[in-house]
Amino acid sequence: MRLKFLIAILACLLLCGCKDKGIEYDQAMEQIEAAFERPDPQSESESMDYMLACLDAGYYLPRDDASIEKFRALLQQLDEKFIEDETQIGDMSASTKFLLRDDGIQESLLNIMEGMDQLFSGKSEDMEYAECTSLYMGMRKKEYSHDNAVKGIKMLLRGRSDH
To answer: Looking at the structure, do residues 1 and 59 belong to the same domain, yes or no?
Structure first.
């Protein structure tokens, strides 16, 4: 919190001083952005779990934050269960969260992904993560709770596998 306050003050000083010192607005913005330390992704897999953890938290996290490992493990589990890869699963999970938020439904990214992980055990040859997240969004928009939406999808999937 203190860092954000200091950066805000720095931004104000730089932007206010632009006119007096002949500094261009773009240069001031570059200086402000340089004040933020944004970690570079070390690998594509690490990048996705890190981005998801930061999205869920709402701010940049330290690289050793415990939630990053949770997202890493979830991505691996979901990758084993669904036909999509980790990147696609991460993208669809984030999209699901933001589409729900746009409809006034608040749900954590971690909770959404854990719900999808609970749908079934083991690998499915044809199960699409996209289909499950679409079902989830539809049920949530019909005012199902998170838990009831997950239970409802489980029942639908069971009924589908019985045929």
So the answer is: no
Provide the CB-side half-sphere exposure for 133 (13 A, CA).
25
Question: Does one domain contain both 145 and 106?
Answer: yes
Same domain, 5 and 79: no
Token pair of 21 as six digits: 């010192």
* pLDDT per residue as tens, the chain (163 positions): 444 544 555 454 445 544 444 455 555 455 555 544 455 545 444 589 999 999 999 999 999 999 999 999 999 999 999 999 999 999 999 999 999 999 999 999 999 999 999 998 887 778 999 999 999 999 999 999 999 999 999 999 887 765 5
Domain that holds residue 69: 42-162
Asked if 94 and 79 sit in the same domain, the reply is: yes
